[in-house]
């Protein structure tokens, strides 16, 4: 006999995940540019944990249950120092306002359990990382209410109109309890302004819902400088490189709202996904913090907490580490953006994170996405397609550039060959159709072989989705 939750996972969630991953190549010869991990600083992390004397700091207590509710006070104190030093909070973050968890997803999972009943809604802008489905829908049976925002308004305070429209549309069937914002965004790698954060907080206060800011890429802002890694002979287009954008944390908002919560984790910024240490930061809601702490119990191991405290969260380590990491991310991003530009591949300029969203399918259809994914599979390179994100045209793929330097160069070359192979296929198909005009086939201007591969498709939603969700005032 299985529970309803288990049946749901086996009948819906597991097949969905398997279908996505079975479409991707596997094997030792595959260049993996799909996984949200920063490999560019892996040697530095390894060196820090294997340095002479590192393990000497372990004591008998390191093998006991963690002390204190919410995690070891030493680790929470060290994390509070990082947040106060790097996130510019309006009010200093105290160790008592932090609950440690085994990663960012677990922090979100625990928080959603405290604020949502089964069937309640959580507003999330598309495209979003599908791992959020696990924490919100699978684990807690809450409903993700997708907010479809036009590309040019994604980081504009006017996007509040779309959140309002979605809330009104779903509230009767899925009472909305929270808005979840990823800042910086995944998969587009953009930062949100203080004005936008304030507008969203005001909206949440007005609607009496929680505002959750997922800030796991906060210290990976790389936008805009030149790089020696740019391929020789590739022109640098000023309007194709994003302006440098400063990350603004929701903690910097001058508020005492009990409904503001921040999620953070060491995984992304420090390139250590295997060190499961995340946190929920809530400055004005001790009841939620206490309930969350009691819910997760001793989730983070004492050894993990101790080693993270004495190495990663040591200011003498992370100051130089983060500076080097940002420099390498900037170089890898500019190398990637220059490659995409050189090959005529449209992409969303990013200012943060470890990835870029690129239009590899080019014609905006799911069929085109399947075709280009087949070519990528033949080339033995792995990226995540738009079908895994939702709300955007087919063919857009997330490319992780924070890989080893040799893998970055080889992976991009394979992507380039895959895109060119599909372009040849499409041109051959169009040419065949042009040869059949006598049989009554009529081509529009966009279909012509001269235009294919030259036009740029602005990233965004399909037109029918825009019409369906667009507030009347913005049409």
From TrEMBL:
Keywords, sorted A to Z: Aminotransferase, Pyridoxal phosphate, Transferase
Single Gene Ontology MF annotation: pyridoxal phosphate binding
InterPro entries recorded: Aminotransferase_I/II_large, Ethylene_sulfur-biosynth, PyrdxlP-dep_Trfase, PyrdxlP-dep_Trfase_major, PyrdxlP-dep_Trfase_small
Single biological process term from Gene Ontology: amino acid metabolic process
SUPFAM superfamilies reported in the protein's UniProt record: PLP-dependent transferases
Gene3D superfamilies documented for this protein: Aspartate Aminotransferase, domain 1, Type I PLP-dependent aspartate aminotransferase-like (Major domain)
Cofactor(s) listed: pyridoxal 5'-phosphate
Domain Aminotransferase class I/classII large positions: 29-415
Family: Belongs to the class-I pyridoxal-phosphate-dependent aminotransferase family.
Full protein name: Aminotransferase class I/classII large domain-containing protein
Organism: Cudoniella acicularis
């Amino acid at each position: 006999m299985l529970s309803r939750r288990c049946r749901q996972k086996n009948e819906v969630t597991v097949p969905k995940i398997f279908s996505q991953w079975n479409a991707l190549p596997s094997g030792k010869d595959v260049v993996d540019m799909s996984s949200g991990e920063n490999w560019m600083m892996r040697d530095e992390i390894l060196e820090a944990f294997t340095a002479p004397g590192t393990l000497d700091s372990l004591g008998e207590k390191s093998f006991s249950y963690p002390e204190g509710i919410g995690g070891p006070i030493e680790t929470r104190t060290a994390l509070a120092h990082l947040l106060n030093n790097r996130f510019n909070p309006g009010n200093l973050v105290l160790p008592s306002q932090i609950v440690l968890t085994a990663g960012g997803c677990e922090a979100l999972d625990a928080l959603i359990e405290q604020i949502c009943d089964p069937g309640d809604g959580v507003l999330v802008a598309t495209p979003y990382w599908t791992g959020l489905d696990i924490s919100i829908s699978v684990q807690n049976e809450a409903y993700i209410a997708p907010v479809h925002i036009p590309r040019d308004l994604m980081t504009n305070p006017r996007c509040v109109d779309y959140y309002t429209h979605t809330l009104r549309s779903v509230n009767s069937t899925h009472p909305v309890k929270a808005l979840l914002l990823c800042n910086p965004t995944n998969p587009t790698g953009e930062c949100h302004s203080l004005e936008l954060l304030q507008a969203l907080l005001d909206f949440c206060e007005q609607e009496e819902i929680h505002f959750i800011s997922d800030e796991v890429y906060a210290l990976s802002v790389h936008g805009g400088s030149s790089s020696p890694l740019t391929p020789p002979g590739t022109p640098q287009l000023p309007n194709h490189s994003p302006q440098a954008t400063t990350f603004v944390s929701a903690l910097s908002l001058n508020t005492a709202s009990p409904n503001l919560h921040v999620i953070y984790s060491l995984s992304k910024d420090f390139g250590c996904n295997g060190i499961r240490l995340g946190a929920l930061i809530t400055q004005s809601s001790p009841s939620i913090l206490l309930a969350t702490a009691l819910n997760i119990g001793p989730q983070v191991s004492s050894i993990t907490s101790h080693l993270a405290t004495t190495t990663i969260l040591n200011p003498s380590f992370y100051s130089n580490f983060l500076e080097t990491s940002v420099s390498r991310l900037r170089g890898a991003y500019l190398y990637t953006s220059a490659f995409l530009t050189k090959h005529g591949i449209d992409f969303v300029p990013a200012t943060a994170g470890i990835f870029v969203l690129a239009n590899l399918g080019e014609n905006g259809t799911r069929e085109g996405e399947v075709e280009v994914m087949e070519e990528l599979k033949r080339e033995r390179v792995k990226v995540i397609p738009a079908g895994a994100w939702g709300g955007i045209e087919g063919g857009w793929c997330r490319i992780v550039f924070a890989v080893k330097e040799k893998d970055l160069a080889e992976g991009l070359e394979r992507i380039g060959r895959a895109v060119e192979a599909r372009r040849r296929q499409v041109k051959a198909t169009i040419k065949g159709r042009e040869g059949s005009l006598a049989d009554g086939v009529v081509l529009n201007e966009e279909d012509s072989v001269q235009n294919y591969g030259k036009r740029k498709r602005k990233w965004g939603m399909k037109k029918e989705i825009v019409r369906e969700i667009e507030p009347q005032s913005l049409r």
